[in-house]
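Below: protein 1.
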Amino acid sequence: EPNHDYGFARYDAIRDAFCERPAEDWPENLTPEKLGLPLHEFPPMYFHPRQDWTFDSGQEGWYRNPFGAYTVAWQDGAISFRTVGQEYNIRTRVRPFDATKYGRFRLRMRVTPNPAKGPVDGATRLLQLKWGTETEPIIRPDRTVDFLGANVAVAGCIPDGQWHEYLFDLDRRGDWRGRVNELWFGLRDLSQAVVDIDWMRFE
């Protein structure tokens, strides 16, 4: 599809660089409108209206982070995904809320490691919760991300295939402030593990 601002210019440049222009010139660039077809758009972004997720009827806005997880699935009141190994596996957008309303983030989760990737002894791994605000977005204007620095809370995780509750103490962080509008969550440095999340909530 053409770019909204520059039409087919980018594709034309690539074609001119790697292909030989025919004597009769390039074929006409076609758009759905020229062919009488509807223009397909992405569905509107879902902004979860609350600060808790029960997963009683679906994923409630959580989706996979590129290169962080395989497809996120919902079944029997929980979401499930397999990690790729990056810091953040899933992400969501929420209706903005004031960080000072809450001081903790709690969830019930089960992590089943892949024996071929470890650990098989139940050694603790780190969970990470990263948040963005209206003034400090996770993806900066220059398209970079500070993965481990500001606006990140961590908690220990036991990848033993059993259900556990985990707690992030946000009150202790000086950067837990502003109006939160996005969240990234993940299991650090554990590839090919199966993660099931029963519920999550701010407290």
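Below: protein 2.
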Amino acid sequence: EPPLPAQNPLPTNAATNISPVTSLSWISGGGTVDGYKVYLGTNNPPNNIVNGVSQTQSTYQPVNTLAFNTQYFWQIVPFNADGDALDCPVWSFTTWADPTITTFPYNQNFDEVTPPAIPLGWATVNQNNDAYTWESYADTNADTAPNAMRIRYNDSQPMNDWLVVPPLQLTAEYIYKISFFYKANSATYPEKLALYKGTSSNP
């Protein structure tokens, strides 16, 4: 018989202030699952962005960055050799408003959020789809108390996780300097860190 509908969507249903580079995730609702059909759109039922893409993973990363301040609908349809799951719910979320930074200097010490939250307008991309991603963390060794951003060490695969700042509105006649404090938790578990800049928030 067909599997049961998927459960536990992330972003949660009707969530707001969601990053435009969010990934979608869910868990099986039960039964034998051979794969999932993914639907995503600004229409309901959703299909005008992703229309039934089939995959075996329970995480989906939209190919393109989503728009600011926009409501999106999405649906996951588990399937097996007996057919598609029935009565699969349509979930929704709304992305945050344009967080573009226009006033400089801009400073962020992550001390105004409650861990593990990150500031509005910042985003994380868990490119390797493991259990760890960037998060704020109360750390006595933080450059400024009480918080810092951290990424956990993975001993089985490269992290390949991204911490994305809000868009910056830069002016051609000025020179801008980017600086930050960074350190590994211990010499036993070092992680390389690279800084990239570009015109898209999706690596």
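The chain has a mean pLDDT of 93.
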